[in-house]
Amino acid sequence: MTIKIRIIILSCALFLGVITVIVLFQVSENIIHHSNTFIRRFPNHAAQEIHQADLTFNSYYFAGAAGDNIYLGNLTAPLTMTVLDTTLVIKGKYKITLNKTDLPFKRPQLKVKGNEFYVYEGTAPYIFKGSTKDWKGHFLMNSGSYFSQVQPGQEGDLFIRYIAPVSGENTIGMFNTNDTSTVKYNKKLLQKQIDGIFDTDGQLHFSDSLNSMVYLYRYRNQYTVADKNLKLQFRGNTIDTTTKAQLAITRVESHKINTLEKPPLVVNRQSAVDGKLLYVNAALMGRLEPEEMWEVASIIDVYDLSNQSYQASFYLYHIDGKKIRSFIVRGNKVYALIKNKIVAYKLLEHLIDKK
Amino acid sequence: MGSFYKVQSGFAITTSYLYTLLFLYAAVSKLLDFENFRVQLGQSPLLSAFASTVAVLVPAIEIIIALLLLTNKGRFIGLIGGTALMAMFSAYIYIILHYSAFVPCSCGGVLEKMDWNQHLIFNIAFVVMSAIAILIIPLNNTNN
């Protein structure tokens, strides 16, 4: 065998080896980000705890975040807003006053967006709006259907998940709080798979950078993004493979109610949207994942809504065996409520692709 | 057939044995902790999507090449295969270091002690060695 032939063989071996790896890399990246087969990716130490504070009670929930403030509502003190700074030190507690008090108040809830706050209760139903400067709520409306979720958008837009009369199905609607006379609905945004009530359950969010609402289903691997006029922008998928809600719904004739026959298969638990990123506390384990981590931490998946791609996942560890109740994200900080504590985490940059 | 022939032959055989040692060690350490290896590959920024297949293929190929290198007849083929595989490992590390969003930790046994740059140099040294071996190894069937 001549030296020439040997050199050719050697070059082929080196070339083929290198090319194979490069092609594998390209294809793998594409699959992971755009047609993931349910394999999560966990960069090391992605979320690091930086602050922790004891709130004494476990009845707090996130009303929102704006500027350097984190706003907490409290189920047992419904009209008190607790304001924390980003290091979780309580800056103040404010009592909200309302200009209309003859309503069937049972369990008012609070939301904050920018300098505005909302007090609402979907089963009454009523909505108040006011400024965080004086904490005075002005009555907006009580006409119309019952609703179950409210999410403020930009310039006074308010996205609402209504409960459609008679059918009881979840329907997305919106109106501008400066002109409450016209409410827009888009009955096609949420797609009914079984009954339109349980199977369309999920969480309503708003993305400032897309100026769009985001709705993430609880029982299937899908999210829906619609603009401020409720025009559908796109439907994206989470990396889970559950495309159809798996619920066994049964009718109890004696009580005239529909209920779940067995525990439903939850795909997405809590979620949050910040900028163009969607954060999902996932409920199902993916392939090739360290199983023991599910015992000690909540798994949060990160999606880029602007190109509907999966980015990465990270762990938020349980505290004394308790998992996170809810969480919000502001820039590179995650705030989570666990038991009677609030915890702040810092996210590392490499969660998001360098581009 | 003078001493030059002996040196050439000796170098090729030494390289082969080093490769056999390395590949057998690597394959066994992967198989001993196979579940862990599979999960780590799944976390690899480069192969996540094919982790299950690659996890089986890599140790299998390593063992086949290691055995080929032990025989006189299979040595030339084994060297070519070994060089290609080692080139793949080097390319893999290079891409991880330069193009990946994050750098994972995943290699077995003693090799775990090396950082990625040392690993890359180590691999390239092996590639150079086997490349030389391929060029100089005396092949009886053509020489006779």
Short description:
The complex is a heterodimer of chains A (355) and B (144). Chain A has 355 residues and is mainly beta.
The end-to-end span of chain B amounts to 11 Å
Principal-axis shape of chain A equals globular
What proportion of the residues of chain B is helical, as a percent range?
Answer: over 70%
Question: What oligomeric state do these chains adopt?
Answer: heterodimer
Number of strands of chain A: 27
N-to-C CA distance of chain A: 48 Å
Going by helix content, strand content and strand pairing, the class of chain A is mainly beta
What is the topological layout?
The complex is a heterodimer of chains A (355) and B (144).
Chain A lengths: L2 H32 L12 E8 L5 E7 L2 E6 L5 E5 L5 E6 L1 E2 L10 E5 L2 E6 L4 E6 L4 E6 L5 E6 L4 E7 L6 E7 L2 E8 L15 E6 L4 E6 L4 E6 L4 E6 L11 E4 L4 E4 L7 E7 L2 E6 L10 H4 E8 L4 E9 L8 E5 L2 E6 L2 E7 L8
Parallel strand pairs in A: 6-10
Antiparallel strand pairs in A: 1-27, 2-3, 3-4, 4-5, 7-8, 8-9, 9-10, 11-12, 12-13, 13-14, 15-16, 16-17, 17-18, 19-20, 21-22, 22-23, 23-24, 25-26, 26-27
Chain B lengths: L2 H30 L1 H10 L7 H20 L4 H25 L16 H21 L3 H4 L1
Helix pairs in contact in B: 1-2, 1-3, 1-5, 2-3, 3-4, 4-5
Using brief descriptors, characterize the structure shown:
heterodimer, A: 355 residues, mainly beta, 5-stranded mixed sheet, 2 helices, 27 strands, 10% helix, B: 144 residues, mainly alpha, 6 helices
Structure description:
The complex is a heterodimer of chains A (355) and B (144). Chain A has 355 residues and is mostly beta strands. Helix content of chain A is 10%, strand content 46%. Chain A has two helices and 27 strands. Chain A has a five-stranded mixed beta sheet with strand order 6-10-9-8-7, with no helix packed on it. A four-stranded antiparallel beta sheet of chain A has the order 1-27-26-25, with no helix packed on it. Chain A has a four-stranded antiparallel beta sheet with strand order 2-3-4-5, with no helix packed on it. In chain A, a hairpin with a 4-residue loop joins strand 23 and strand 24. The longest helix of chain A has 32 residues, at 3-34. The model of chain A has no long low-confidence stretch (mean pLDDT 90). Chain B is mostly helical. Chain B is 76% helix and 0% strand. The mean pLDDT of chain B is 83. The chains are: A mainly beta (355), B mainly alpha (144). At the A-B interface, helix 1 of A face helix 2, helix 4 and helix 5 of B.
